[in-house]
Amino acid sequence: MVSADAMVSADAMVSADAMVSADAMVSADAMVSADAMVSADAMHTDPDYSAAYVVIETDAEDGIKGCGITFTLGKGTEVDWSRKGRGAPGDSGRPKRGVGLVGQAGGKACLEVTCGHEKQMLAQGYPAYTTSCAWLGYSDDTLKQLCAQALKDGWTRFKVKVGADLQDDMRRCQIIRDMIGPEKTLSLFLQMMDANQRWDVPEAVEWMSKLAKFKPLWIEEPTSPDDILGHATISKALVPLGIGIATGEQCHNRVIFKQLLQAKALQFLQIDSCRLGSVNENLSVLLMAKKFEIPVCPHAGGVGLCELVQHLIIFDYISVSASLENRVCEYVDHLHEHFKYPVMIQRASYMPPKDPGYSTEMKEESVKKHQYPDGEVWKKLLPAQEN
Predict the structure, then answer these.
(1) DSSP secondary-structure letter at 315?
(2) Which residues neighbour 199 within 8 Å (Cβ) at sequence distance 6 or greater?
(3) DSSP state string for 234-281
(4) β pairing state of 349-350 and 126-130
(5) What pLDDT is recorded for position 110?
(6) Residue 286's closest CA among 139, 114, 148?
(7) What are the pLDDT digits (tens) for 5-16?
(8) At what angle do helices 254-262 and 278-292 cross, to 10 degrees?
């Protein structure tokens, strides 16, 4: 039996904000590159990768535990932690449940718990795209350098952050398109765009009409994630231009997804493995996407999102959709080194995890090093902030 108090470990909270003084925490912000432009977009110009790390343990003395994370891109983490990391619908938090317990109890990865190994996934993996090359704020030289390296590493699908300045977007998209080539199919070289909710509806249509010449597969989050009818209007205007609408990373329950699907407001559905509370809520959305014949292309990145979502996309392919057509999953190359079972990418594809659990467990040394306020990182940061 797990008591309410035991469900939130007092030893593990992750936050990058020195103003928070609740029990113990770990700075995920300090784990990210010192370059402030890493992960910057039109909405989050100075991202704060804070996270509350929660451990669920029982009195069974078998060593099994469930690990989970909740985080925002700012001070919303303080709100989440004050509510014991549960991130109620409507909060800015991304609640993650300690579902690692389920897989650990049987000694299997989530994939094996649900459906067993699948030869195609084990051999080829699940196709991915990279967002790491074209964060908003990167210089042109940095963008070119990162894109060239990604191409060398086998990446063929790239997402570009847009939405802050049209002329800047035009220049950056041209650079990417020139480097990856003119084709626009999932099997060749592909470009996607992400506005991170920056525009209103008319602005989104006008802006993307001008960016259409770069042949993006989709525009992601063109307007407020709560504006279902707005997305439908944008979709109606842009689909004839060959541009799909991708959204869902901010949707906090299956009802919002149901309405997006019913309104024909999206062509690519983007679940977020911790915005939706629990595996079950995610699975309900996968089933609805199957019913409406809309491909699922999950959002990932952040703190551990890639580690979690790999289980969901492979389950979707094997047990729900049985298709890889128009399907691809986001990948961002940072913070994986802090997880005990980091995601594995080969040939620009997610390889199925084979370790027990939901891949949420962080390394003890990383938690200890970034623990607030006594961790090594914070002992250096706090005096610097005071000065």
Answers:
(1) H
(2) 163, 207, 222, 223
(3) HHHHHGGGT-EEEE-TT--SHHHHHHHHHTT--SEE--BTTTSSHHHH
(4) antiparallel
(5) 57
(6) 114
(7) 332 333 333 333
(8) 10
Average pLDDT over residues 329-349: 94
Asked whether the beta carbons of 108 and 115 are under 8 A apart, the reply is no
Under a CB-based contact definition with an 8 Å cutoff, are residues 56 and 360 in contact? no
Active site residue 299: yes
Catalytic residue among 96, 231, 252, 299: 299
Residue-level pLDDT at 94 = 40
Whole-number Å distance between alpha carbons of 245 and 387? 46
333, two tokens: 């190359």
Please provide the DSSP assignment of 3-48 as one string: -TTTTS-TT--B---TT--SS-EE-SGGGS-S-TTTT--SS-SS--
pTM for the model = 0.81
Using one digit for the tens of pLDDT, what is the confidence trace for 107-133? 555 555 444 457 889 999 999 999 999
Helix (H, G, I), strand (E, B) or coil at 83: coil
Catalytic residue among 161, 231, 252, 370: 161
Secondary structure (3-state) at 377: helix
**Helices 140-152 and 166-180, axial angle in degrees (round to 10):** 30
d(CA 126, CA 272): 17
Average pLDDT, the chain: 80
Taking only the tens place, the pLDDT of each residue in 289-314 is: 999 999 999 999 888 899 999 999 99
Residue 79 burial by CB count (10 A; 0-12/13-18/19+): exposed, middle or buried?
A: middle
For the question of residue 161 being annotated catalytic, the response is yes
Interacting residues of 13 by C-beta distance below 8 A, sequence separation 6+: 22, 23, 24, 25, 26, 52, 53, 54, 81, 85, 372
Closest CA to 350 of 323, 303, 311: 311
89 in helix, strand or coil? coil
Greater confidence (85 vs 234) lies with 234
Tell me how far apart the alpha carbons of residues 27 and 13 are, in angstroms, rounded to a whole number.
8
Residue carrying the six token digits 């010449």:
213
**Could you tell me the two tokens for 247?**
């959204």
Cβ–Cβ under 8 Å, residues 277 and 95 = yes
Name the band, by pLDDT with cuts 50, 70 and 90, for residue 189: confident
